[in-house]
Amino acid sequence: MGELIQKLKLITPHYQHSDGTSFAAPIVASTVACMLEANPALTPILIRQILTSTAHPVSGAPMELQGAGAVHPGRAVAAALAEQHHAESLIKVTPSVTPAGVVFLLHDHGVKSLSVLGSWNQWQKPGLAARQREPGLWITRPLRLAKGEYTYKLLVNDTDWRDDPANPQKVSDGHGGLNSSFVVK
């Protein structure tokens, strides 16, 4: 009987183990709905960050086939509830081009230091330093730039070059990666 249960992937007589994207999609969607119920201020980028940071590896599955791992709804909802920032701290679009200048924002609890380097100064270090406004929320002072199109990358913890995850505008960096871009009008 035990072999038959294992062969049929039965968890109980009424529930069967299943996997794949068609099975995962409703579980992730319902987890996101619960996260938004816990914290309606979550942005899509923040939802993705919470889902990936609270996921757990799938034992026995190759890392290259599992992405961030299996969603952990309880952890994700708890993290969403704990993720509270003052409304004035959050910019909806980054970078934010304002009359005072361009402001960059990164939300990442794993960051210890952040600089923004870009085409406006030929990628010269140290770049535009960001300060931590709240736990996990990094923001730069406004950078005044002339009208034009600019590209940039984030330098995280002095070693990790990243394109901006909150900016969908990307261009090739010429080295197999991406730069983020924006326009000052």
Describe the structure.
This protein is 26% helix and 28% strand. Strand 11 and strand 12 form a beta hairpin. It has helices spanning 2-7, 21-38, 44-54, 63-66, 73-82, and strands at 10-12, 15-16, 96-98, 101-103, 105-107, 114-118, 128-134, 137-140, 148-156, 160-162, 170-172, 178-184. The chain has two domains: 2-82, no CATH class; 87-184, Sandwich (Immunoglobulin-like), CATH 2.60.40.10. The longest helix has 18 residues, at 21-38. It is built from five helices and twelve strands. It is elongated. It has 185 residues and is an alpha+beta fold. Strands 5, 6, 7, 8, 9, 10, 11 and 12 form an eight-stranded antiparallel beta sheet that branches. The chain has a two-stranded antiparallel ribbon with strand order 1-2. Strands 3-4 form a two-stranded antiparallel sheet.
Annotation field: number of helices: 5
Annotation, overall tally of beta strands: 12
Number of domains: 2
At the fourth level of CATH, the homologous superfamily of the largest domain is Immunoglobulins
* CATH topology grouping of the largest domain: Immunoglobulin-like
Based on Cα principal axes, name the global outline.
Answer: elongated
The CATH class designation of the largest domain is Mainly Beta
The SSE order reads HEEHHHHEEEEEEEEEE
Q: Give the structural class.
A: alpha+beta
Strand content: 25-35%
Terminal residue distance: 71 Å
**Percent helix among the residues?**
25-40%
CATH architecture of the largest domain: Sandwich
Low-confidence stretches: none
Mean pLDDT across all amino acids: 86
Q: What value does the Rg take, in angstroms?
A: 21 Å
Main pleated sheet? 8 strands, antiparallel
